[in-house]
Amino acid sequence: MFDLSARYLVCALLLAVAEALYIGIALRRRIIDCPGVRASHRHAAVSGGGVVFVLAVWLAALVCGFGSYLFLTGLTAVAAVSFVDDIRPLRVSVRLVVQILATGLALWQLERDGCMLPLWSLPLVAVMMTGVLNVYNFMDGINGMTALYSVSVIVPLICVNASYGFIDPPVLYLLLTAVVVFGYFNVRRRALCFAGDVGAVSMAFVLVYAILSLILQTGQWWYAGFMAVYGVDGVLTIIHRMLLGENPARAHRRHVYQLLANEGGAGHVAVSAAYASAQLVISACLCVPEFSPSAVLTVSVVVLSVVWVWLTGKYFPRHMAAMTSARISGNVHNYDRSQKS
Length: 341
Fold this sequence. Notes:
This protein has 13 helices and 2 strands, in the order αββαααααααααααα. By secondary structure, the protein is an all-alpha fold. The protein has one domain (about 5-340). The longest helix has about 35 residues, at about 295-330.
């Protein structure tokens, strides 16, 4: 009978083998993410490497006894539809319906675990959770971003979970292990694989579930600040695109991290590390007893917003000039037509 540490070791080895096998299969099956005119990467790489995140949570259930099967069903549903979308683009409506149903299962799981939400708030929370899934997915655009930022969220959750026990520890430990495995192939100048929708959406689903469970058990809403950096960038970018008369759901290169990597010429891993470091600092400050969490979160949002406005003002004109040049050459037209098909 394996003790817990032995089980973790076996699971870690399984995750490493599974990722290597998937990359080999994906190469043979041509599950490849090729750079387009609005992509931030310049080299083709395997897509869907984030499937290992889903496997990590299922290993937590099968090997370590994590028994939240409504949540697992929801996770599997969003992972499946996202993986299909990685291979053959699906309609936005199909993805949204599955995501909303999956978040409903997650909320049902929380209710069964004793984390009650007012009945009137359930539709609003489900919509907000679905929005976070898609923002997290939109932020997955450069090497290292999903891997490093996910670490910056998982580590504080592991620390807080030691005090509150809002989720079974194996879920977070194995999820972190899966991120490290995936990061070996992704956090490099020329990535060998990308997380894909299956990775980004699945990771967001687990993290949102964990954070919401923490908030409901403690009554402390400011734990939402564990994803403050993504939140500010995502929300401000959506507002910016709406002011420009654009469809926020369409693929783009308007996030600050994309402007830094493309127009600013900064290294992908460096930008990803900056996002992750900023989030770790904010999360650490939120957990310092001597600090007021609401004040920390307020100051963080203000500072992040000011930095966002400054960097967007500096690099967005260059981005528009590049897009205008691409439009004249016909590349953007071809890209837009491919997105509609």
